[in-house]
Specification:
Distance between the termini: 70 Å
Strand order of the largest sheet: 5-15-12-19-10-7-6
Largest sheet: 7 strands, antiparallel
Low-confidence stretches: 1-5, 500-512
Helix content: 10-25%
Shape: flat
Amino acid sequence: MDKHISIKSIRKCVRKQKRAQHRLARDMDVECSETPTQYIAICNAGLVTGLQREALEQFIGNLVPNFSLTMPPEKSYSFVNFSNVCNAQDFYNKVHGIAQGPNQNTVFYLIFIKNIPSIEEPFGNELPPGLRLITDFISPEEESILLQSINWNEEDVDVDSLLKNRKVKHFGYKFRYDNNLVDVDNPINPIPTSYKFLQSLFDKNDCGNIKYDQLTINRYLPGQGIPPHIDTHSVFEDPILSLSLGSAYVMDFKQGDQKVSLDLPARSLLIISGESRYAWSHGICPRHNDNVRTDNGFSTRSRATRVSFTFRKVHRGDCQCKYPEYCDSRRKKTFKVTPIDNSVASELENLYVHDVYEQISGHFNETRHKQWPNVTKFIEGVETGGLLLDVGCGNGKYLQGHTNVFKMGCDRSTGLAEICRSRGFQIIFADCLQLPYRSNVLDAVLCIAVIHHLSTNERRKQSICEIMRVLRPSGRALVYVWAKEQNKDSVKSTYLKFGASKTKKDDTSIKYDVQYRKTENNLTLPIHENRTEFTHSDMLVPWKRKGGGDFLRFYHVFEEGELEKLCSDVPSTKVQKVYYDQGNWCIVLEKTSVTEVDCK
């Protein structure tokens, strides 16, 4: 029995190490070593797991002397530099796969590495333009008075599922989280007179030189946060003030690929004005600990209850800011989605499809494993010995299994193609618009979640033509594309169900203010809000990676009947079946003749 447990533990350690090797190489460009070195990566002990630096340092120091610890912010792993290889080997032998971590419940998994990476500073010295933080804005006594003035059990306290049960109070005007607006013609109880001393402090510290008439008080319990957002331009003046009470929290500011994490101490005032007000999103990640800088490096700090007083001045009329890309007033007037034609299609797809998949191929592979049942059923219908091609095969999840069929794949991403090759699949680098295969030879073709990345109808039709060209007569193809209808027949797709936190208790969808991006080739396209209904047919859809590094992918989402019409216009093609499958429009095609397919 002991031997069985030992073998099982060894296998688990090996699995953990392999996963960590890939993650370290992808995130930090860390090279692992098959032989002992003085450098060790602790694969599952990091700041993002809530482990404090002091606890880990004490744990390591009790076993081996003379070391330095590196804990990258927002990561689940740490690095240890020992004074020599012997100490590193000793620590490895005592810890790897043994349940004796700082909390006595942690089994640490270790890897010898050849280098320890330099850690990028997440708390930038450069704040977004217009952002200012005043520490110790009020005294501890004033903080206590403000906190005691709030009764969180009163009737005017809001509890909204969108805010994950965070409690909120409004004064002056009620802020509506369903549309991010206020009703300027429907004022509520004014800001209490007991808070007037704050307005005097605002005037004294040059905090906008305006009389604030709207106050939102939020209570954040540990684990609660607020999604990244830009306060609606047309609703409020500039600036917006946020007073932090009770507990320090980290707030994240983002604009494109830029991110600044700002530690907000208790009793500090944050002034959000100018570019930081109009063009940077701000939010608080929902977690129980924050990564903070200490004298020795980065550590974690437990959150307590934070109360924020957010002061705004209600604005009437349209916004006149200099940031039309983010402005609700300007978008209504000037932002129209640009029609896409073939002159810019290739460049658009290179930037927002091909280049993106090269960068996310590793993360894509980690998130795509399970075969969809209806696709599996189609493969099982291919006769024994048949030839099947998966066009845009990704990480090759449909190339595994079904040994009675000879399967091969092609993909436009070199990163995904290499992943397939490493798994022993028959794979080549190829574009779906020009398949390097002979005509009339294949028994079946898959094209799953591919042609919705093509930006014009002509190019989408060309891809279907190529699929039908390589099929033999009576050969069949299965094509899947994203559907614009993600809430069909009052049934939500899996895509929307995973966004349940974006839905109110009455099951009506939250409305989001659509953002737009002007592309490098001067197109204007809307940016989709993940896990919500699609608002346009041509959109940029975010690919989000844990710890940052978000990308935008181009999608053309198909309306009902659009895919069938597209395929019906292709010669030698018969539509066998059209169906809807969890947010996708799907079609089964049959080739009707030997003749070459001509789409010109």
